[in-house]
Amino acid sequence: MTGSTRTEIPMPSDEMEYRGGWSLFAESFNRFLELKLNRFSLGLTLFFIVLAILAPLIAPFPYDAVDPARGLSAPGWPHLMGTDQAGRDIFSRVLYGTQTSLSIGLVTVLLGLVAGVSLGAISGYIGGWVDEVIMRIVEIFMSIPGIVMALALVSVLGPSVPSIILALSIRRITQFSRVARGSVLSVKSQDYVMACHALGMSNARIVFAHVLPNCIGPIIVLASVLLGNVILTESTLSFLGMGIQEPTPSWGTMIAKGNEFLTFAPWISLFPGLFLFLTMIAFNLLGDGLRDHLDPRGGSVV
């Protein structure tokens, strides 16, 4: 009589750690920081965010403090970046301009993300005529150059902060919609989505609780890239006189005002232009790093 063999099921030992969501996130974040370029872009991005938050504490002068006697002073003490034609401190205005640009950029991208991802998710998940209607509207807006659309809307609504945010948000809504729709189409036929249907879950719960969390990678990458793009577009509007109005500081306005003094007072345009350049570098490198980290196969998310 042969004895029956017993299959031992290995049980987790005490030495095995449970790897929860935070553990996996920390591991992924550490891998992201292994590249020097990613560390540089993230550090530069955080640097500008800290500058924007602490601008009222760091700025040595009020951004609208006028001192005609010190007009067009060269960089030195106490004006580290010099003064403009009205004697206002360039360093203080650049710091407050950082706050202005990042605030508009963050609000614009957030509005575009919420509205665009919602529309794209509905379009991709429901499909049919709903998808056709939403995507045809998106294509109409995508066919218009972003800066032209922004100029037209600001011309009608007036150059105020709410109108600038609205004008810049419309383009971002269409971009987020396309990315979200494509991501939803790629995952809505997965087995876990079918299991959710079998369990009787509502469509809204399936989309926002199970489908979108698995599409978050391309959305995060797009948000980081668009943040720099929005800041550049806002500066362009201000440069053309259709953005932030004086005396509120904006990098674009400062560059435009300094154009007539380039030959003998280049610092008026140089320093805000340098901050704008570094901000664009930071967000674009961060977006590229996130794209390569989240999608090793590469490819554009726009």
How do the helices and strands line up, and which of them pair or pack?
Blueprint (H helix, E strand, L loop, with lengths): L20 H12 L3 H23 L31 H37 L1 H15 L3 H12 L3 H27 L3 H8 L4 H9 L4 H24 L11 H7 L9 H28 L8
Give a written overview of the molecule:
Mean pLDDT is 85; it is low at 11-20. The N and C termini lie far apart (70 Å). 67% of the residues lie in helices and 0% in strands. The protein is an all-alpha fold and 302 residues long. The chain has one domain (33-56, 88-294): MetI-like fold, CATH 1.10.3720. The relative contact order is 0.13. α3 (90-126) packs across α9, α7 runs antiparallel to α8 and α9 (216-239) packs antiparallel against α11. The chain is elongated, with a radius of gyration of 25 Å.
Radius of gyration: 25 Å
What fold name stands as the CATH topology? MetI-like fold
Main pleated-sheet profile: none
Dominant shape: elongated
Helix content: 55-70%
N-to-C series of helices and strands: HHHHHHHHHHH
Count of strand segments: 0
CATH-defined architecture: Orthogonal Bundle
Q: Kindly report the average pLDDT value.
A: 85
Low-confidence runs (pLDDT<50, min 5 residues)? 11-20
> Can you count the helices?
11
Domain module count: 1
CATH class: Mainly Alpha
- The helix-and-strand class reads mainly alpha
Distance, first to last CA:
70 Å
Record keyword descriptors for this entry:
302 residues, mainly alpha, MetI-like fold, elongated
Task: Summarize the entry for a quick read.
The chain has 302 residues and is mostly helical. The chain is built from eleven helices and no strands.
